[in-house]
């Protein structure tokens, strides 16, 4: 096979150095190392920000590689713990405890498996993009606000509004503390490295920015003996917590069931939207959405059994995988192998990583979740969609994740219903004789006030003919209102209104 085109070599054989069963092993091996280096700090950072042991983030990354990575669906998409679920996981752990988290993730995985088997994966593409982007924006805002406390070495308040309201006090308290200023400076430097990294020469950028930022922060902490908190290490096996019967009993709680639904909605939507984005980055096999949903479900089922974090497909790791030249699913499987080897052989290294550096990575990740360009573009062309995006984000900050998403979905449905009920009234009035009115479109109760206002404006002292043959839909409320209007509209001595109804 030719390495450049994938076509048979001229001599009919294969190119040297290529394994017949794994023709792209070299490209996939190199890409897997890049993805591993990108995933490592993110797995640890997401776990710490979620309020769980750092090792649980590594476990989810390992499962994402070795379980989800082996299954069919999207060949180049990489799964693992995601910043988009950090806020929801933190709230779940705080409210119900770490033991119940495994049950929540397990139930999420089983539901995703069932939905994939019922071929519901493709329908997630029907979710309003404005709602999804609003969801990510709300998560980003809460994530940034919460991690700013971690950057300063302080404990964050519970709710999103309290996090935002407490920021001025955090700044005032930090200004008078040398330890807080040191911690904040290290976190700010981490963010600065991430922002500036893309402007450095290409040879330097072969090292992922997140890894470089964490490595530099760790070296600075050790070299100058900075008084900042570091990651607590418990060990891989000690961090695994299998769900017990008491934890399973948490499923009787309405709050837990609502959290599971939120996990299912957000994890599935984020994974399948990510798959669509990854498909645009390469010209290989397209994503099979139902199979990808089942692959995510299988991964979350295993993560739940191990008491680990939930997983989604992650666009940052997936795009790094494609950019590094991956050709098959072997790259994402191998990245899981490298995570497993690191967690098994070098877990003590985690203890040197400063928490402000991980918080800085998540502040940067949260900022990238806020679609500022999309908001501006939507406002110029589709202000209703922009409003849905903003309201969803604000609702998540003000209330909580699940209810915020429901508010966004309800707004999207209401907007669609309003637009679908478009109706047009055309009046032909020659100044004398009958007045002819033509209604076309969809006559629903949503437009009933406008319909009646327009009809009431027609002359009452002349014959009126209303032609409804142009209507695609006439609901019961409108039909009843039209009948009542036609009976009382004309003055005495004037011919009654004639209404031509649409054919059944």
UniProtKB/TrEMBL annotation:
It comes from the Bacteria. Keywords: Membrane, Transmembrane, Transmembrane helix. It is a multi-pass membrane protein. GO terms for cellular component: membrane. GO terms for biological process: transmembrane transport. It is found in: Membrane. PANTHER family: SULFATE TRANSPORTER. Residues 486-495 have a biased composition (Basic and acidic residues). It comes from Streptomyces dioscori. Residues 485-504 are annotated as: Disordered. InterPro entries: SLC26A/SulP_dom, SLC26A/SulP_fam. The chain crosses the membrane at residues 29-49, 56-76, 96-115, 127-150, 170-197, 209-228, 248-267, 337-367, 387-414. The keyword Membrane applies. This is Sulfate transporter. Residues 25-392 form the SLC26A/SulP transporter domain. Coiled coil: none annotated.
């Amino acid at each position: 096979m030719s390495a450049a085109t994938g076509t048979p070599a001229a001599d009919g054989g294969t190119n040297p150095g290529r394994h017949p069963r794994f023709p792209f092993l070299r490209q996939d091996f190199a890409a897997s190392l890049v993805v591993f280096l990108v995933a490592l700090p993110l797995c640890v950072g997401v776990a710490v920000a979620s309020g769980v042991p750092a090792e649980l983030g590594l476990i989810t990354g390992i499962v994402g590689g070795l379980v989800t990575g082996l299954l069919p669906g999207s060949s180049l998409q990489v799964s693992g713990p995601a910043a988009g679920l950090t806020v929801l996981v933190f709230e779940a752990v705080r409210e119900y405890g770490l033991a119940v988290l495994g049950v929540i993730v397990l139930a999420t995985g089983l539901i995703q498996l069932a939905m994939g088997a019922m071929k519901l994966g493709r329908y997630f593409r029907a979710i309003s993009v404005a709602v999804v982007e609003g969801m990510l924006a709300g998560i980003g805002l809460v994530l940034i606000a919460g991690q700013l406390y971690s950057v300063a070495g302080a404990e964050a308040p519970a709710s999103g509004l309290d996090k935002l309201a407490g920021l001025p006090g955090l700044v005032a308290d930090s200004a008078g503390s040398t330890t807080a200023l040191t911690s904040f400076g290290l976190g700010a430097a981490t963010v600065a490295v991430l922002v500036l990294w893309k402007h450095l020469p290409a040879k330097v950028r072969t090292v992922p920015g997140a890894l470089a930022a964490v490595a530099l922060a760790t070296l600075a902490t050790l070299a100058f003996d900075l008084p900042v908190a570091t990651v607590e290490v418990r060990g891989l096996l000690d961090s695994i917590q299998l769900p017990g019967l008491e934890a399973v009993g948490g499923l009787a709680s309405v709050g837990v069931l609502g959290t599971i639904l939120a996990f299912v909605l957000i994890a599935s939507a984020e994974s399948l939207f990510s798959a669509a984005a990854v498909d645009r980055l390469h010209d290989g096999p397209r994503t099979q959405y139902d199979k990808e949903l089942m692959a995510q479900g299988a991964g979350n089922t295993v993560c739940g059994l191990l008491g680990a974090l939930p997983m989604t497909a992650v666009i940052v790791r997936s795009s790094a995988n494609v950019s590094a030249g991956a050709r098959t699913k072997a790259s994402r499987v191998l990245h899981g192998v490298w995570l497993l080897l690191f967690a098994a052989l070098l877990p003590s290294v985690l203890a040197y990583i400063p928490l402000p550096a991980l918080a800085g990575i998540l502040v940067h990740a949260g900022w990238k979740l806020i679609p500022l360009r999309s908001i501006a573009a939507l406002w110029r062309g589709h202000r209703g969609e922009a409003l849905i995006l903003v309201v969803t984000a604000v609702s998540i900050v003000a209330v909580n994740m699940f209810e915020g998403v429901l508010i966004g979905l309800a707004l999207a449905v209401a907007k669609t219903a309003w637009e679908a009920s478009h109706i047009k009234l055309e009046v032909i009035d020659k100044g004398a004789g009958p007045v002819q009115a033509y209604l076309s479109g969809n006559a629903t109760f949503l437009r009933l006030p406008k319909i009646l206002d327009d009809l009431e404006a027609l002359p009452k002292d002349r014959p009126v003919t209303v032609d409804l043959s142009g209507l695609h839909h006439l609901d019961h409320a409108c039909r009843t209102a039209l009948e009542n209007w036609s009976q009382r509209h004309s003055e005495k001595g004037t011919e009654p209104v004639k209404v031509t109804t649409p054919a059944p």
